[in-house]
Design a protein that fits this description.
Elements lengths: L4 E6 L4 H11 L10 E6 L5 H13 L5 E7 L2 H5 L4 E4 L11 H22 L5 E4 L4 H10 L9 E3 L2 H15 L6 E2 L2 E3 L7 E3 L4 E2 L2 E2 H5 L2 H13 L1 H9 L5 H16 L7 E6 L11 E9 L2 E4 L7 H23 L4
Parallel strand pairs: 1-2, 1-4, 2-3, 4-5, 5-6
Antiparallel strand pairs: 7-10, 8-9, 10-11, 12-13, 13-14
Helix pairs in contact: 1-10, 4-5, 5-11, 6-8
The structure holds ligand NAX.
Ligand NAX binds next to helix 1.
């Protein structure tokens, strides 16, 4: 078969890493005929735990898994890599201000951007999962000037999938009957899940559901606050669903969206829909041949406009904050 694709996963010993690595190694990220070589990046204290996970990966005897290498040095971990999943991040702890959070993550994503710039393969694709994902992606992208900006993306696919699940329950249809769901903006509580362009079995979803109160008071807050609801119920944050969304994101990016459908990805804005150029914001995108494109020409009514503007405004503020901290 073909030469293995190098996939670097940061935060490999964390809970998302534990759910993600086995799915990558089984062929679900890139395809059932694509061998992969895993490169795990962890902080020194977590290298031993990563080694334990690597032992379990061995024990699965995955035919597509060409090998696993473990690093505590970003330059080595990203050398020659084709796909980078940046999962490891500094979580917000009690009493931490936003500036502290951004600064701590700048200390992770700046050197990782530099390492990607220095040594990743020419076809590198980057997905940032670690929060605050959009702004962490921006920091990494800004420190990789030789890599085309469109190769840096952040994950809103979990929000997208959550929105599909909620709408399918409300409408009593299968998730596969729903097309053209969109998440706009930041992967945060300000995100805007938009069903005005979505379709259920080919008909407009908002019109089919026809329940503005559900949309405003149930659907939008349920999707936006789902992460907190999972923590409340499970006693730990979303892990397997986040890993599943990361698999979906990269699989769609590499293999393309289906005709008549699109997905949600946070990508570098070109100014479409009034989103300031350069920020990494979620849009409806189609993918083909390993490239994404923002869906153009959608009509945005006042209800959607206000929500998109609020989330995008938060991203613009985060960019100002990291500029002020000298992180970009
Ligand atoms: P864990 O705390 O279980 O794991 C994080 C791992 O990252 C740890 O093993 C830690 O040692 C490692 N790490 C820290 N700094 C690192 C560095 N500089 N280089 C390499 N590894 C490093 O967190 P987990 O539950 O796996 O979540 C990971 C991240 O995903 C968090 O930032 C979380 O907020 C974020 N999420 C993002 C989601 C999204 O939709 N974009 C949803 C799920 C999740 O909340």
């Amino acid at each position: 078969t073909s030469t293995p694709v190098n996939v670097t996963v940061t935060g490999a010993a964390g809970q998302i890493g534990y759910a993600l690595l086995f799915r990558i190694a089984s062929g679900q990220l890139l395809g059932a005929d694509v061998p992969v070589r895993l490169r795990l990046l962890e902080i020194p204290q977590a290298v031993k735990a990563a080694e334990g996970t690597a032992m379990e990966l061995d024990d699965c005897a995955f035919p597509l898994l060409d090998g696993v290498d473990i690093f505590d040095d970003a330059t080595k971990a990203f050398a020659g890599t084709n796909v980078a999943l940046l999962v490891g991040a500094r979580p917000r702890t009690k009493g931490m201000e936003r500036g502290d959070l951004l600064e701590a993550n700048g200390g992770i994503f700046k050197p990782q951007g530099e390492a990607i710039n220095a040594g990743a393969a020419d076809d590198i694709k980057v997905l940032v999962v670690g929060n605050p994902a959009n702004t962490n992606a921006l920091i990494a992208q800004q420190h990789a000037p030789d890599v085309p900006a469109e190769r840096f993306t952040a994950m809103t696919r979990l929000d997208h999938n959550r929105a599909l699940a909620q709408l399918s329950k409300k409408a009593g249809v299968s998730v596969s009957d729903i097309k053209k769901m969109t998440i706009w903006g930041n992967h945060s509580a300000t995100q805007y899940p938009d069903i005005f362009h979505a379709e259920i079995a080919g008909k407009n979803a908002a019109e089919t559901v026809n329940d503005q109160s559900w949309l405003e008071n149930d659907f939008i807050p349920t999707v936006a606050k789902r992460g907190a609801a999972i923590i409340e119920a499970r006693g730990a944050s979303s892990a397997a669903s986040a890993a599943s969304a990361a698999i979906d994101h990269v699989h769609t990016w590499v293999n393309g969206t289906a005709a008549g459908d699109w997905t949600s990805m946070a990508v570098v804005s070109d100014g479409s829909y009034g989103v300031p150029e350069g920020i990494i914001s979620s849009f409806p995108v189609t993918t083909s041949g390993g490239k994404w494109e923002i869906v153009q020409g959608l009509e945005i009514d006042d209800f959607s406009r206000a929500r998109i503007d609020a989330s995008v405004g938060e991203l613009a503020e985060e960019r100002e904050a990291v500029r002020g901290l000298g992180l970009i």
